[in-house]
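[Meeting: bench + compute handoff]

Bench side (C.D.) handed over the final construct sequence. Compute side (W.E.) agreed to return the predicted structure before the next meeting so the bench team could plan truncations. Sequence as handed over:
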Amino acid sequence: MSWIALEGAVNVRDVGGLPTVDGRSTRPGVLVRADNLQDLTPGDVVRLTRDHGVRTVLDLRTDAERQLEGPTQLQRTDVAHHGLSLVPHRDGDSEGDDLARAIPHREGRRGESPTDMTGYYVGYLEDAPKELATALRLLADPVSGTTVVHCAAGKDRTGVVVAVALSLAGVTRTAVVEDYVASAQVIDRILHRLQGRKAYGELGTIDVADITPQAGSMERFLDHVDRAYGGPHGLALAIGLDEETVARLVRRLVGPSPHGDR
């Protein structure tokens, strides 16, 4: 995992180099995770597209977030963009309700303890299985090239999609959790950025501790995947992926099996 320094985003990293259970490691230049891309400078766009080869963006934000924030500098390029909200609009909810559910924080968590975000993460599986499946299919497609997955903070919705993809590829649980928790290294800068954005005004009343990622949340989420689906492979099949798509995703993220493709 390596950080990518940009002027207009603070939680951007390539998840290459993470260890797998069979002794391999994830390839760099395939999957990049990020916070929101609204403040990218022209130099940032050049760095992402030219230096890192970004060709596809998976935007996990809600329609309300995208409408309020407007297009990014990256959308003015030929990079493909896909809107895949993991927090779908509910009948009767207002735009404000959608935005309130977009950024999990301590005051609104549904977990068993004040620092538990597991309920939100399980909710993404239950509320947006088609969007999760589409994200994984796009990550598995070689045509996508280097792909950025992002939401607002780059830690919750992004964290779930990346964790599922890495787990499918055989990355060790320890490495999956460590990658998730790495966002805590820049959480103060993440919060500062969000508090200055129109879509996230309600975050002005919370502090860093309210949104700092905790290892236990991801551990419990992965435990749920094991219990409810028999593991990430069972989850992938349950949301509509086929075996060939899963195999393509693995080849994209870590390369051919050392034991030969099956």
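W.E. noted at the follow-up: The chain has twelve helices and six strands. C.D. will use this when planning the next construct.
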